[in-house]
Design brief:
The structure is a single chain. By secondary structure, the chain is of the alpha+beta class. It is built from 3 helices and 9 strands; from the N terminus they run αββαβαββββββ. Helices cover 18% and strands 27% of the residues. The strands form 2 sheets. Strands 1, 2, 3, 6 and 7 form a 5-stranded antiparallel beta sheet that branches. Strands 5-4-8-9 form a 4-stranded antiparallel beta sheet, with no helix packed on it. Strand 4 and strand 5 form a beta hairpin. The longest helix has 21 residues. It is elongated.
Length: 193
């Protein structure tokens, strides 16, 4: 009987020590599943709408062409569309109500670009809003080194003119033109002295 006690004691003592060793031990932790976080979809950005020209410009009367920057052989020409004063349009947009024609909007008006584009349509060669430019009756070319013109890289109402001669800006064929007006504006650039 003594023998059993001696054998039983080390077995019980070993089991107790093994249990104490495991108590509070992190050697084999149970896996913890993370709590799922519901995903919130990103808000859809509101698309930027182009500004509408209201009131819409009446029929085109023509263009006022000018030399904006004259730096020797190269010049930057600008085209400003002019519209008729139908239904007192000029007075409604901030000009003298008694004039026969006016620009589509004052230069400080945020709707100027949209209204200019509505008045002239899109250029045939670039597809951008603005007039189609011509030199001596022919279309502008890209990166011309000779006399002529090339479209401005970012603004179709401007053109880079090289040398002298006749430059023209014309509205799209679909644009209504006043019977007393003209679809194209013309400027003669004189030769350098």
């Amino acid at each position: 009987m003594i023998h059993r006690r001696v054998v039983a004691f080390p077995v019980l003592l070993g089991a107790a020590l093994f249990g104490l060793a495991r108590c509070g031990s992190d050697s084999n932790p149970s896996p913890v599943s993370p709590t799922p976080v519901p995903s919130t979809p990103a808000p859809t950005p509101t698309p930027v709408q182009p500004l509408a020209c209201n009131p819409a410009p009446p029929p085109l009367y023509g263009f006022r062409l000018s030399i904006r920057d004259a730096s020797g052989y190269r010049k930057t020409l600008a085209a400003k569309p002019l519209v008729t004063n139908a239904d007192d349009y000029c007075g409604k947009v901030g000009f003298d109500p008694n004039q026969s024609f006016c620009a589509t909007r004052p230069d400080s008006d945020p709707l100027l670009a949209a209204c200019d584009a509505a008045a002239v349509g899109r250029a045939k060669d670039t597809g951008r809003p603005g007039p189609t430019w011509f030199y001596e009756g022919g279309p502008c070319t890209t990166n011309t080194a000779e006399q002529g013109c090339e479209n401005h890289p970012s603004d179709q109402f401007l053109v880079i003119a090289k040398g002298s001669g006749e430059f023209a800006a014309c509205a799209a064929d679909a644009i209504t033109v006043d019977p007393d007006g003209s679809r194209c504006g013309v400027i003669q650039v004189p030769p350098l002295p």
